[in-house]
Amino acid sequence: MGKSGGDVIVVGGGVHGCSAAYELAKAGFKVTLFEGRYLSAGGSGRSAAGIRQHFGTEVNCRLAMYNVQVFRNLQEELRCPLDLEFTQWGYLWVAYTDRSLGQLRLNVELQNSLGIPSEILDPEEIRSRWGYLKLDGVIGGAFCAEDGHINPHGLTIGYAEAAKRHGALVMMKSPVDRVLVRGDRVAGVSVMGEEWHAPVVLLAAGPWSAPLAASAGVELPVAAERHQILVTEPVEPFGCPMVLCLDDGAYFKQCPNGTFLIGRDDPLEPKTCEVQVSPGFLEGVCRSVLQRMPILKGVRVVRQWSGPYDITPDRQAIIDWTPVEGLMVNCGWSGHGLQFAPSGGRLVREMLQGVPTFVDIRPFRLSRFEEGDLFPEPACI
Ligand SMILES: Cc1cc2nc3c(=O)[nH]c(=O)nc-3n(C[C@H](O)[C@H](O)[C@H](O)COP(=O)(O)OP(=O)(O)OC[C@H]3O[C@@H](n4cnc5c(N)ncnc54)[C@H](O)[C@@H]3O)c2cc1C
């Protein structure tokens, strides 16, 4: 027996599940979304929420341009209950080695060829624009003034609420135990032992997509990796852009409410979904950022947390139908997935409608791993 999940069951109430639910419900599909905990409980609610068009692969640049275009009017489009805080204070990558600067140059060349207004800056230009940055050893950087910030909780909840207004059923505290398969096609999902049926199931459960796909016999090369981050007390906003330091992976930015978000890429972090934090991160990242932002000395840290990246072997997303008919995945967004919610939702909707996707996303296909056709994103932390 079991219950009807409508036309499409979406698993995961992160930004991608909610954006897909919105796009699909708006297009007339009957959607049921299951979230195991609460909306934005995964990577989405734990992210640094940076928005950028600085990518080094064409597909990501094209999608990133679309994301920024959508973010400009999304507050109105979704009639968001929470302020989305979309702010364009820019995104600056700084390089300390010829190799890093060479890669930034290649990325910016590609971005400019596609219409992204990014630029390469020398140390003098960086100093003259952001006098408060102390960037000893920096040999250059890449900057895009259109990039910025969005509130990750507002974004996720905004999509979910708008999906509900279009008729979607959004169920929280409803963990999916497994995907149901009959013959070679998907039949629905089991939620705490109860069967829900639908002809299409979308797995948008971040790193948890892999075990769910495995329950349907599909192998997804997606692994979790813990990333830590912290937030300071607010200081008078002065529009400090996101600054990403390519020597040690540290990044910081000011949010519109004046707080600073500070994080660092650390390859030694555990490869799990656990969300513990460590005093070593707090000390290390504060030392690293204070060297670059001495004006933050004395500003107090108010909270530290962590969340999982969902990493694929090339740090690129997987958006595709699986070999099980009707089972689709959208996951593997690594450390840059929040900002791809607008394009991710649209792509899923177009794939379900059976129309050509607005950007060619063949590079994101699942079979690339088997084929050995990886396409690493060079602009990743
Ligand atoms: C510290 C940190 C900093 C980041 N910084 C940025 C950034 O600056 N910019 C950016 O664009 N991206 C950033 N990211 C990455 C970004 O957060 C993710 O790529 C994106 O949020 C992934 O969204 P998602 O919806 O695919 O997955 P998630 O947000 O992880 O959502 C998956 C959801 O599925 C639910 N779920 C899991 N299992 C089940 C189940 N069995 N049944 C039902 N539900 C289930 C989870 O509870 C979760 O809510 C960062 C991530 C982290 C951790």
TrEMBL record:
Protein origin, superkingdom: Bacteria
Keyword terms: Oxidoreductase
GO molecular function: oxidoreductase activity
InterPro entries linked to this entry: FAD-dep_OxRdtase, FAD/NAD-bd_sf
Keyword DNA damage: no
Domain named FAD dependent oxidoreductase: residues: 7-350
SUPFAM superfamilies reported for this sequence: FAD-linked reductases, C-terminal domain, FAD/NAD(P)-binding domain
GO cellular component: cytoplasm
PANTHER family per record: FAD-DEPENDENT OXIDOREDUCTASE DOMAIN-CONTAINING PROTEIN 1, SARCOSINE DEHYDROGENASE-RELATED
Name of the protein this chain belongs to: Glycine/D-amino acid oxidase, deaminating
Organism for this UniProt entry: Thermanaerovibrio velox DSM 12556
